[in-house]
Amino acid sequence: MIRLLRAVLFLEFGVMLLVLPWSAYWDRNYFAALVPGMHELIVNNFVRGAVSGIGVINLFAGIAELLAVYVARHTAARLRVEPPQPAKEAP
Asked: Distance between CA atoms of 78 and 66, rounded to whole angstroms?
């Protein structure tokens, strides 16, 4: 269950970091307005691309985590052995 929650967290952060720098919300950042010169840095396309790159890395990490959960479940299902059935005797 923890691995699924971790995967969801990675995927959510990945999507947010991928999309948010290119939205209007990014331009109206309260914290950037407090520090002079910070707004110019934040709206720089290279910084936006770097943040989006971190989002892509998070998306890949979330997908890898989901694949690990999927493989672990199928491996456990394959290794699960049913108890042997008693042999029926022929009449």
From this structure: 18
Helix (H, G, I), strand (E, B) or coil at 22: helix
What tokens does 11 get? 């995927």
Instruction: Return mean pLDDT, the chain.
Output: 87
Q: Do 53 and 47 meet the contact criterion of CB atoms below 8 Å apart?
A: no
The mean pLDDT of 3-27, rounded to a whole number, is: 92
Tokens of 86: 């008693």
Sign of CA dihedral 68, 71, 74, 77: negative
- Alpha helix positions (H), the chain: 2-19, 24-27, 30-34, 38-42, 45-79
Does the pTM exceed 0.90? no
